[in-house]
Amino acid sequence: MKRKKLIEDAPSESPSPAGSSGGRDPKTGRFLPGNKHGTGNPLAVRAQKLRVALFAAITPEDMFLILRRLVRMAKRGDLAAARLILDRCFGRVHRGGEPMTDEDQYNPDDRFL
């Protein structure tokens, strides 16, 4: 009986600012305000500033010349240039994992869809 009394008199834990849902919105899974782990990516602001600087420094004509040179290099046998072009145009090749099925195979007719 004494033990039961101690449990009832024990101070209850104060709820966390984000509630009892683990600090996440039950619908979206995003961190709620007050959760110390939901501060965001500290490097995102810096990365955005670098992107802005890149776009300010390069013109469409610059990009055309760079890409034309890259294609020329690939045609001359530069495998790194060819891989870069193909990866950017068609996505990277998956290595390992699930084997490809017939539906995953490249179909030249699909490029017009």
In short:
44% of the residues lie in helices and 0% in strands.
Q: Overall 3D geometry?
A: flat
Could you tell me the radius of gyration in angstroms?
A: 28 Å
Strand percentage lies at under 5%
Instruction: Please tally the β strands and state the result.
Output: 0
- Average pLDDT over all residues: 78
- Order of helical and strand elements: HHHH
Major β-sheet annotation:
none
Number of helical elements: 4
Q: Unreliable stretches, pLDDT < 50, 5 or more residues?
A: 13-19
Proportion in helices: 40-55%
Cα-to-Cα separation, first versus last residue: 76 Å
Structural class of the secondary elements?
Answer: mainly alpha
Structural topology:
Elements: H1 2-9, H2 44-57, H3 60-75, H4 79-90
Give an overview of the whole structure.
With 113 residues, the protein is mainly α. Among the domains are: 18-57, no CATH class; 59-93, no CATH class. It is 44% helix and 0% strand. It has helices at residues 2-9, 44-57, 60-75, 79-90. Helix 3 crosses helix 4 (79-90). It is flat.
Distinctive features:
113 residues, flat
